Each structure stands twice: as structure tokens, then as C-alpha cells.
Amino acid sequence: MAGQSRILNGIKFIALIIVMILFVFPFVLLIVNSFKANQAITSDPLGLPSSFQFDNYVNAFDKMGYVSAFSNSLLITIAGVLLIALFAAMTAHYFVRHKSKLNQYLFFLMVAAMIIPFQAIMIPLVKIYGSLSLLDNKWSLIYMYIGFGSPLAVFIYHGFIKSIPLELEEAALMDGCGRVQTFFRIVLPVLLPTTVTISVLNVLWIWNDFLLPSLVLTSSEQRTLPLSTFYFYGTYTVDYGPLMAGLVLTLLPVLIVYLFAQKYIIQGVMQGAIK
Amino acid sequence: MLTEKGLWTRLRTRLIFTGPTLFAFATVMIIPFLYGIYLTFTNWDGIAVDQNFVGWDNYIGVFKDTVFWKSFGMTLEYVFITVVLTNAVAFLLAYAVTRGMKAQGWFRAGFFLPNLVGGIVLGFIWQFIFNQVLVFAGQKMNLTLFSTSWLADPDKAFWALIVVTVWQYAGYMMVIYIAGLMNVPKDVMEAASIDGASNRKMLARIVLPLMVPSFIVCIFLSLQRGFMVYDLNVSLTSGGPFKSTEMVSMHVYEQAFLARDYGLGQAEAFVLFILVAAITLLQVYFSKKLEVEA
Questions:
Q1: What letter would DSSP give residue A221?
Q2: Which residue from A39, B151, B178, B247 has the fewest beta carbons nearer than 10 Å?
Q3: CB–CB of B272 and A117 under 8 A?
Q4: B277 shares contact with chain A (CB less than 8 Å)
Q5: How far apart are CA B78 and CA B163, in angstroms?
Q6: Do residue A123 and residue B256 have CB atoms under 8 angstroms apart?
Q7: Would the pTM of this model clear 0.80, i.e. be above it?
Q8: Residue B53, beta-bridge partner list
Q9: How far apart are the C-alpha atoms of B262 and A214, rounded to whole Å?
Q10: Could you give the CA distance from residue B209 to residue B184 in angstroms, rounded to a whole number?
Q11: Chain A contact for B220 (CB, 8 A cutoff)
Q12: Cis peptide leading into A124, omega within 30 of 0?
């Protein structure tokens, strides 16, 4: 009995390893090929590199405008994530603590808006912001992320704030803290776990987003990492070596962060889905 | 309840706390959405200063646009297949990595990996795999299935999109199913196993019914992502060969920004919104009926 289940467990374990290889292999293949010369890639894409072509990386780094794309992505993601979290936490807190009809309607409107797909908004969005000359600007993009990201963030914060005892805040108010001070000193620290969840979801979304930046950012020096990858790949289709290296360069920051924050990322996605 | 004295103080607090969010939300989502409805009744080409009011012409145009309906039908097919496959694979993976096995954390991390990367990059990686790696392996090992690139054949290109979508999202949905599985009360499971229920019976009678909320969330998410697929479509197949894999979201984009028919494009986007909203609301409504209390 015990022996049989051990064999069965062994089979299951091997099956899982095979599935795992299917999930990770594309990335391994990409990294291996990024060190090969073009000819070696096309003649034997499965082989190991015979000599390391670091030129591929130098080439891609240069042609992608990696430094500029990376810093654009970093600025947009950090500013977007922080501002969404801050503003949404304040709004959700206000909605929970001031139960008026108006606030209920506003909250309902935000939740309902979550089913509007981006495609139903993108054309008027480009038209309106284009006519105001607000396109091709990183800060417009960050502002748009606040607009698109706040419904979900308000919704998640709202659920969490309901469970915080009001006495905490009342005590602070009694001691002479103002509203804003009470929020920053008492409420915001308590919200930290939820903030981590919301930030993880928003980082994954904003860092990798393609369609919105492609509509808003038109000049090449404004490009984010996904945008510059797209243009680099699109205009450079003959030489696989630099292309592979370019894709690895785009992946690298994500992989490094994942290595250190893996637990938080998976936990964040989990919490975000339970709500 | 917190209330303050004085109209002015109340208004100021409201503005500080809800002002930035509501202003951004209104100007980025609500106003463009409403203005978008107005745009569907006009014929703006993207260049002219004025646009003319054309009544229901764009909506009639939507019904006449056979390419739109073809890509809509294909998107429905794609959504149906990917939702079923993604959730089946995700649930199996979640079930496998919550059995207390060694190295489960590593497995979870590996299965989740594709979700860290945007659709554009994933599409390019798989373009390389379909065009080079699989063709190379197919020719070496005499596998006719892979000896020519999937992306060059309309039917196979469609399946290539499905393969990559399932590969990408299964890990994400797995994480949600893991959370659901861990919420199944231990005492209920113990009681059942003392009563002599087999593993399979426990799965069918206890675990699956208690997991309905997770299924609702995952099906909802995979439906939405499926209907809106764009990045992967652009980078893996760019709608080809011969527009055979142009999903509806990409069609709307092309109609508006490349064919410069913003009115028609917006009308199609709006029709898409109504259909998708109806389908997701129906899904949530019917699955809520299946929910049981633990």
C-alpha cells in the first residue's frame, strides 16, 4: 500500500517536472540563443552556443535605446503605482467612513465601470487628449493610469477598510489629529498589506502594458520598454541574435525582481482575486 | 460614521480625500466613454476639424462589416477554447501543487513565470519557437505536424494563439485556484475522510462545490482577457496569415487608427462592449446560482 502510493507520487512528481519544463523552456531557449550568432540560431536553434556573442547585447542595448526606455518605464510604473495606491486609499476610506447616498452611488459607478473594456474608450480618449495637446507626455500617461487603475484599487481598499475598527481613528481625532493627519498616521499604515496587493497587480499591469502607451507616447524618446521592444523587433527582423538579446534585456528586470519578491508577487495576486 | 461641523470643512475634506481619484476617473473613463457613444453617430476621419452627424449609419455599417463579424465569430471560438483549457489546466496544476509535495513553491513560481512578462514579448518569443525551433525539430525528427511553421497556416496560426494564451494564463488562474483550495475547511475534509470518502469522491462532492467562487472569478477573468486579446495577437501573428487570425480587438484598432474610420471603429468597439458585458454578466449571474455555503 505504502509502496504503491510512493510509486504513484513519483510518477506525479515526474509529470509535474515535465509540465514545469514546458513552462520554463521558452525562456531558457531565448537566453541560450541570445548568445549565439545569427547563423548558429537558424541552423540549430536547440544547440548550445559554441562561442558567446556579447555583441548581440551591445547591439540590442544600443538600438533599443535601452537606457531611455528602461527609465521611462521605471518612472511611469513607480509614479503610477504610488499615486493609484495613495489616492484610491483616501477615496475608499472616505467612502467607508461617510456613508451617504451620494458616496454609495459614486462607489457603485466606479465598480460598474470596471466592466468597460479599454477598447471602448481608446478612440475618444486619443481624440480628447489629442485635441488638448496632452499626448506624447509621460505625465499624461501616468494620469490615465490613475483613472483606469483607481476603480479596482478603490474596490479592494473598500473591502479591507470596512474591517478596521473605527475606534482607532476616533481616538486619534479625539487627541486632536486632523482628518488628513489621522489618515496618514493611523489608517495608511494599517492598510499596508492591501497596498502591497494593489501595487503588485498594478506593477504587473503598468510595466507590461502596450496598447495605451502605444497610443499616448508617439515620439521615440518617450517610449517604454514594451514599446521599444516592439519597434526594435518590427524593424529588425533579419538578425535573430540581437533580437533575442533585446528580448532578454526586456525580461531581465522582471526576472531579477521576481527572484527577490516572488513570495509577495504570488501572494498579491492571490489576495487580489479573493477580494 | 464620521461627520464634521460646517459645510465648508465638510466640502474641503471631501475634495482632499476623493477629489484626485474622482477627477481622474471621470476624465479618463466616464467622459471618454460618453463622448465615445456620441462619436458612434458621427463620421470623423481623424484629420478634419469637424465631424458630421450621421445618425445610425455607423451601426448599420457595423452590421454590414462582414470582416468584423468574421473576427467576432473567431474571437468567440478563441475565447471558448481558451477559457475551457486555461481553467482546466490551471485547476489541475493548483490541485497538484497543494498536495504537500516537495518543492511545491518552485513549481508554483515556475508556472506563474509567463504572467510577469507582457504579451508583446511573449508573442515574439513564441514567434521564434514556432518559426524556428519547432520547424527545426519537426524536420529533424520527421514530424509533419511541425515541419512547416504553424504561423504560416491560417488554422494552425489560430491554434498557436490558443497554445500561447493557455501557457500564459494557466499559471495566473492556478494561483487563484490555490487560494480557493486552501480555503476549503480542513474539518469538513477530515470528517469526510473519517466517513470513508475516497479522494475522488471528496473532490467531486466537497472540493468542487466549495470552489465555485474561485471558478467564477477565474472564468470571469479569462473571459475578459480572451475577448480583449491584443498584444499577443499583434506580436505573434499580427493578424496573419492573410488576416486569418485578426481578433476583434485588433480589428477595431485597425478600423479606427489605420483605416481612419473613427466613427465606425467606435461603433464596433461599442457593440463589442455591449456583447462582452452581456456575456460576462450572464456568466456571473448563472455561476452565483451554483454557489454553496461552506
A1: G
A2: A39
A3: yes
A4: yes
A5: 11
A6: yes
A7: yes
A8: B42
A9: 17
A10: 10
A11: no
A12: no
